[in-house]
Structures are given as C-alpha cells and as structure tokens.
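Field notebook, page 378. I keep forgetting to write these up properly, so this time I am using the form the group agreed on. The chain and the ligand, adenosine-5'-diphosphate, are recorded exactly as supplied. Prediction of the bound pose follows.
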Amino acid sequence: MANVKVAVRVRPLSKRENAEEGRIIVEVDNKVAKVRNIKVDNRLDGPWDSREKIVAFSFDYCYWSIDPEDPKYASQEVVFQDLGTSVLSGAFKGYNICLFAYGQTGSGKTYTMMGTPASVGLTPRICEGLFSRQDDYSEQPASCRVEVSFLEIYNERVRDLLKQSDHKKPYTLRVREHPETGPYVQGLSQHLVTDYKQVVGLLEEGIAKRITAATHIHDASSRSHAIFTIHYTQAILENNLPSEIASKINLVDLAGSERADPSYCKDRITEGANINKSLVTLGIVISTLAQNSQMFSSCQSINSITSEGDSSPVGSHTTGSVSGTRRQAYIPYRDSILTWLLKDSLGGNSKTIMVARISLNQCLFFIYSHLSCQLQLQ
Ligand SMILES: Nc1ncnc2c1ncn2[C@@H]1O[C@H](COP(=O)(O)OP(=O)(O)O)[C@@H](O)[C@H]1O
Ligand SMILES: [Mg+2]
C-alpha cells in the first residue's frame, strides 16, 4: 500500500440544493472523477475559449453515493471495505494510521467518519473491526489492549471531549513533545475499552460535546477539528520472548474548508482564519513529506545503480554521498496544532488516507485534493 491514499466521495444533493435546482457536476468512472465546468457548458466550441468543459482527476478510490438504487452506489459498507479494512490491516501490522475527511461544510465529512444510527460510518466500524478481529489474520495476538481518546481543536486550542471541563475555559490543554514518543496532549484522558459498546458510548459522548455554530451553508456546521485516537497494543511472542506491537490510529473529522465570508461576525472570521491555517499547514506538510520521500526513493535508485556496477557486497554503500548533496526539506509540523499532533501519524512509520468529499460546487477543494494526491503518488 502506498503511504498516502486519496479517496473522493460524491454525496446526494441536499433538500436545499434540490429546491434551488442544483445540478450534479461530477461524474465518477471507476477511479476517475470528471468535473463539468458549467460556465463553459453552453459555449460554442472555438479557439477563443481554451477552458475545458470536463476535467478529469484520478484518485485511489472514487465513491458515487448519490442514489442507493444505482448499481455503482457506494454505501458506508463499501467505503469501509476499502478504507476501513486498510486501516485495520495497517494497525494490526503496527503502523500508525491517519484517516481524515476533508471538504467544505455540508459536504459529508461527519457522515463518512461517524455516520448516523441508521447508516454507521467509518469510525465505529473500524472500532468494531478491532474487537472482532479474526479469520483473515492467522497470527492471532495473545492479547490486545485498546485505549481511546477524543479531542477537539478549535481556534488552535485543544479540549478533551471525554472529560468534564470548566465551562468558561474549556480549551486549556497544552500540546507537548516527548523526545522519544513524540507530540502528545498533556492531561488528555485515555479510556481503556474492552468492547465495541463502550467505544460507541464514548464516541456519542464526545460528538455531543463538539462545538457547532450556525453558518450560512449548514445549520449545525462543525467549526472544529475532531481527532478520535485509538492506541492499539498487541502482546505477542517474538522468538519466544514477550513483546508488543503498538500502533496509533487517528480518525480525523476536519472542520469545513470553505473561505471565510467578510460579512461574517468577528468570531466567525477568527474561526475561519484558524481553520484555514491548519488546513494550509496540513497541505504543506503532506506535500513536503511527498517531496522528501520522492527524493529518498531517487537516492535509493541511484544507489542501487551504483552498487550494481560495483562488485562490492550489498550494504557497503551508504546513501551518505548522495543524500549529503540533497537535503531533506524541513517539515513545518509545528505551524499548526493539528499537524503537530498528527506528526507521528503523517510521517515515519505511518499510512495516511484522505477522504475528500464533494457535493455540488466544490471544485476548489477537489483540485486541492487532486494536487496532494499527485504529489504523494507520482
Ligand atoms: N453519502 C451521503 N449519503 C446521504 N446523505 C449524506 C451523505 N453525505 C452527507 N449526507 C448528509 O448531508 C448532510 C451534511 O453532511 P455532514 O456529514 O454533516 O457534512 P460535514 O460534516 O462535511 O459538514 C447531512 O445531513 C448528512 O446526513
Ligand atoms: Mg461535520
């Protein structure tokens, strides 16, 4: 599995969009999403307007979730079978995993990550998968431990969604960095869970606490990033000695990616600026990681060519001479709380899945997702 995968999901039109006679401008064909530019749709073809009518973008997965009667309809189960099972198999192997939903407010991020009671989303399904692990993974661990935490980042400040906090000052938790174990939130409550029912109880408790504020797009829009973290530790025997495989799964429901409208009140604008800051930093971090890994693989291939032409044993070459000339770019994890906290799940021993969601008129974010996809996977 490539280290970063990008999926895109198209949701049905909302009642409001239907009432306004909105049109779906995206088509999905296997792994390709095609966006129709309605501004040039009725144009007579000619050399004076070079804009494309349809622009196609490739993704690792494209989900069409418009009409359940449609044979290509992607239900919550279909999304879980692709993305959720990748998360689970990565966690069982000891990877840190990060799965996050990106898109405008109302595009269906929370629906995909959490779902509704009638249509359960990725997070509860992944938790269920951790507890019902069987069959496909023949090497069963002797025992495993699941600990969860749930936090919210709002205006670059953190609060615990699973602990009663001071109503006047709820966002007081500090992010710190341990030299060995990496960034963590000081004082964040960790909850040991032994079955699926307990996890669902905690998820519901945290969701109820998430801050919502009315925006012109969606009445109960989430203006904060929510990170549900699962620490999954397996006790195993390695060469007959007791050992542990630890992995961390971060399931992130990002705040809306829309631009702040200058007609909003001051609080809304501050929110928007902070949301954009963390999303921009996230984009920079992901593309810098991609550039670095590309540089690393080209260094590796140069080394393999050099060692092929040389009779010295494998291993006698180090990457030093090559990597010494091309430095890895600095990754600005600490420029936002979101990226700082996700540091060890974005880089290093980790796998990242991004689910971008689109609805009627979200070409901007769509293109952004496409760019990060290209950067990661080229
Ligand atoms: N794939 C989907 N199928 C059916 N309804 C959806 C789908 N995605 C989103 N919705 C509905 O659209 C509305 C907005 O979705 P929501 O997840 O709250 O958006 P966001 O979290 O991005 O702001 C909700 O009423 C949700 O139930
Ligand atoms: Mg939401």
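OBSERVATIONS:
- The pocket of magnesium ion (ligand 2) is lined by residues 109-110, 222, 253 (CB under 6 Å).
- The radius of gyration is 22 Å.
FOLLOW-UP: compare against the apo run.
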